[in-house]
Amino acid sequence: MQFYDFSKHCGKSITQFQSQFIMSRVLQTDMETHIGCMYLEGNGVIGYHQAIVPQLLLVVNGEGYVRNDKEGYIKVQAGDAVFWEQDEWHETKTVHGLTAIVIESVELNPSAFMPLQR
Description:
eight-stranded antiparallel sheet, RmlC_Cupin_sf, RmlC-like_jellyroll, Cupin
């Protein structure tokens, strides 16, 4: 399990086309990629299971806890990105609610765009 930072302070100012915003790059793939948004209500859980392919969880709202088979629960919050390797056991849970984008692909390399957090 690796932790990355995609918060605003890691982003780059974009001004092309008269734009005015910050972009925090996350990843790039050439292979099939599945992207979804997960909404966990209070006391919600994504049960303990193995990752079928490498998986990146981007917490966009709320807070919760993640674990793998080697470490206890670690707190995560908006701006945190958690990466699990293929076959790695993992779980995500929340007390008050959490919204996250999940990206799954055999070709994930989050360290190419995001700084390691821990």
